[in-house]
Amino acid sequence: MYPNFAYDKTLVKCHPSPRQMIVEQMEFYAFAHFTVNTFTDKEWGDGTEPESVFNPTELNADQWVDALKSAGIGGLILTCKHHDGFCLWPSAYTEHCVKNSPFKNGKGDVVKEVSDACRKGGIKFGVYLSPWDRNSRLYGTDEYNDYFCSQLTELLTQYGDIFTVWFDGACGEGPNGKRQVYDWERYYALIRKLQPDACIAICGPDVRWCGNEAGDTRPSEWSVLPVGFEEPDDVAEKSQKSDDTSFREKTIDAMQRDLGSREFLQGNTGLNWRPAETDTSIRPGWFYHASEDDKVRSTETLLDIWYRTVGGNSKLLLNIPPDRRGLFHEVDVQRLREMGAYIRKTFAVNLAENAVITADTDDGYHSADALKINSYDEYYKPFDGDNQVTVTIKLDGVHDVSHVVIKEHIPMSQRVESYGIDIRNPDGTYAEVAAGTTIGYQKIEKFDPAATDEVRIRITDSRVCPILSFVGVY
Ligand code: FUL
User: Fold this and answer.
1) pLDDT tens string for the chain (474 positions)?
2) Around 151, how many Cα atoms within 13 Å sit in the side-chain half-sphere?
3) Are 6 and 227 in contact (CB under 8 A)?
4) Ligand 1 in contact with 240 (CB < 6 A)?
5) From the CA of 279, how far away is ligand 1's center (Å)?
6) Is the CB of 64 under 6 A from ligand 1?
């Protein structure tokens, strides 16, 4: 059994591992879906596409990274192999890869170019390797597990540090298709050995699929879930099974709305920290289609998703598909710039920094002053048993306020179950401007701008005493 293995039913791990903390703090990262589909105008290739179709003539991964950084994105996951089996790196284990394509006369390596550009640009790099492979003749046999591990080994040893390995649950084989018994434990052990700091996402123990591709989120998102929930077979069951575009519009199933309430957890013997990740595309498709150039999501929609994910205890994994040139399309680049400009402007000045922050109670060691610093080195904590507390942020004058950011001290788990936020009116009364349930890694509350000299955060219920690490007022 490996450390942090998600499916040990006796495990109780209610806080993030160091590798999960890396992803938690990245908040917002990107996907790039790129393969033969980009050139055949498909979403799922069937594995018979000739290598000759893959020919990006102006590939420039620096352009991708610059665009991502303009939005404040901290990492990029590349589809090194999608369901069609075509590998974006010159794999020694298959002919179905870039080495037999016209791209750089067969001498190119997209994974290298992209990972180098990420490193140069100071963002992290992750790999998507589709377990389902429609090209490999080994798929459906035990040897496929060897093949898959050989490919993983190439990716995890030749391209520097990898922050996440993303295992898709999608499989469209259907009732008469090939059945592969994936040796998940072997894959996980290999990843832990070769890249111990990398998370294993989706069909894996460290990062949990949010359950839809539309950008839908849960109002109450918990990171502590029962062990055994969403094992790879469950993920596969809920994932896409045919190349049906309507799947991308499907929202979270009603049955899946609550994954972490006390009622939901009751009776489970094990608990595990598995934060949600919301993966969605900037366009209707995951791959580039010129016909979708006028269907790129608006900056407003993208920001709405950003608020609900990054500000709602989920990670945001936004897909930006490179086009046939090997560039992010101009429209997508513009959207990323606009998102970044808005976020930077909105959160430029944290009014809490010059405020006086107090709490109605603390344990004598961890005062509310610690909330000014956005780090996990210090935190605010009341006495055990004090599950309701009020934190008051007295500003250095009257300011227009429209956002409050709260972070729990997640190294000591997720505890808060409900809260309210008030502002002080000029006449000394208080008006509630926001209220909610879970906080977790981070809650961002946006409300109508109001002039005030004091903001009050009331934690109205918590599983055990609330422990907070940061408060921001903007
Ligand atoms: C799905 C896949 O089928 C899509 O093509 C895409 O890769 C998405 C991220 O996951 O399950």
Assistant:
1) 344 455 677 788 899 999 999 999 999 999 999 999 999 999 999 999 999 999 999 999 999 999 999 999 999 999 999 999 999 999 999 999 999 999 999 999 999 999 999 999 999 999 999 999 999 999 999 999 999 999 999 999 999 999 999 999 999 999 999 999 999 999 999 999 999 999 999 999 999 999 999 999 999 999 999 988 778 888 898 999 989 888 989 999 877 899 999 999 988 888 999 999 999 999 999 999 999 999 999 999 999 999 999 999 999 999 999 999 999 999 999 999 999 999 999 999 999 999 999 999 999 999 999 999 999 999 999 999 999 999 999 999 999 999 999 999 999 999 999 999 999 999 999 999 999 999 999 999 999 999 999 999 999 999 999 999 999 999
2) 30
3) yes
4) yes
5) 9
6) no
Atom of ligand 1 nearest to the CA of 243: 3
Determine whether the shortest distance from the Cβ of 35 to ligand 1 is under 6 A: no
- For residues 128 and 373, what is the distance between their CA atoms, to the nearest angstrom? 35
Please work out whether the CB of residue 279 comes within 6 Å of at least one atom of ligand 1: yes
Cα separations (Å) of 406 from 46, 140, 450, 471? 46, 48, 19, 5
395 C-alpha to center of ligand 1: Å? Answer: 46
Say how far apart CA 466 and CA 414 lie, in whole Å: 8
- The tokens of 140 are what? 């459906």
Which atom of ligand 1 approaches the CA of 239 most closely? 11
Ligand 1 atom nearest to 172, measured from its CA: 3
Q: How far apart are CA 110 and CA 385, in angstroms?
A: 54
Query: For ligand 1, atom 6, which residue shows the shortest CA distance?
Result: 286
